[in-house]
Design brief:
Elements: H1 2-20, H2 31-42, E1 45-48, E2 54-60, H3 66-78, E3 84-88, E4 101-108, E5 117-120, E6 125-129, H4 140-158, H5 177-182, H6 193-202, E7 209-212, H7 213-219, H8 228-238
Parallel strand pairs: 2-3, 2-4, 4-6
Antiparallel strand pairs: 1-7, 5-6
Helix pairs in contact: 2-8, 7-8
């Protein structure tokens, strides 16, 4: 929590300095100069594709538009950086982890149940029932937001995260549809990501790696340079030595 607040404060400070065109006082550099220095040293940040078991979001005849599921999968892949895909399924089928899938979130429309979210963290399984979310005949936009929020909440619960008191976070405690509608955000803040990552690792769920372009070059998986900063780093890391490496011969020890 302290780290999050510190990051927010630092961001706001830099934004204020940029707005006034002033230096940061400590280093005598403007925010633009500081950003350029960071880019020159790191090349920015890149993401290595996740390899391993993924999360499947199952559309079990839910009636939810495909674009909502596709947006959810993309957000899961870029937020907490878990490999997430959408598949079509049946509401009566049993979905449990297998060799390729570490966890399932099944989205269905069960008018016989008033339960919205069920989660079984130990089994890598959760479900979202959209029937209670449309009981009051919401318009398409409100329904889409409800589904998005509840799928995110199910994912966090399934991967070991819980409620928090961050003002805008989707993981604020809720007691009914009205509370869901009042949530300002449609996805979680970064606070539960650490717990989610730990649980995901136990389930064998892949998480994409975020690192600097320079580190990616050193490790040998960096994509082709996308700008002059990355081109300079690429050339530097991959440059051949201009002088032969000198290795001092090992001295033989003589027995006395």
């Amino acid at each position: 929590m302290k780290n999050i607040i510190a990051c927010i404060a630092a961001t706001l400070c830099i934004a204020a300095i940029a707005a006034e065109g002033k230096t940061d006082g400590k280093h005598g550099k403007t925010p633009a100069e500081m950003r350029e220095e960071v880019m020159r040293k790191t090349g920015g940040f890149v993401v290595a594709p996740a390899t391993g078991r993924g999360i499947k979001i199952v559309d079990a005849r839910s009636g939810v538009p495909d674009e909502i599921f596709n947006a959810l999968a993309k957000a899961v892949s870029t937020g907490p950086r878990f490999s997430a895909t959408v598949i079509k399924g049946e509401p009566t089928r049993e979905y449990l982890p297998d060799a390729n899938t570490g966890a399932y979130i099944v989205v269905k429309d069960d008018a016989t149940s008033k339960m919205t979210i069920l989660a079984a963290p130990e089994q890598g399984w959760a479900s979202v029932n959209v029937a209670p979310l449309k009981a009051d005949a919401p318009d398409a936009e409100k329904f889409a937001k409800r589904v998005t929020k509840e799928v995110w909440r199910a994912l966090v619960y399934m991967l070991g995260g819980g409620n928090n008191q961050m003002p805008a976070c989707v993981m604020k405690p809720c007691a009914g549809i009205k509370d869901i509608d009042n949530l300002k955000m449609e996805q979680p803040c970064p606070e539960p990501f650490r717990e989610m990552s730990q649980s995901a690792a136990k389930l064998g769920i892949a998480q994409a790696k975020l690192t600097s372009y320079r580190r990616a070059c050193v490790e040998g998986w960096a994509p082709a340079p996308a700008n002059d900063y990355q081109k300079a780093i690429w050339d530097e890391v991959h440059a051949m030595p201009t002088e032969p490496i000198k290795i001092k011969p090992e001295e033989k020890k003589t027995e006395k």
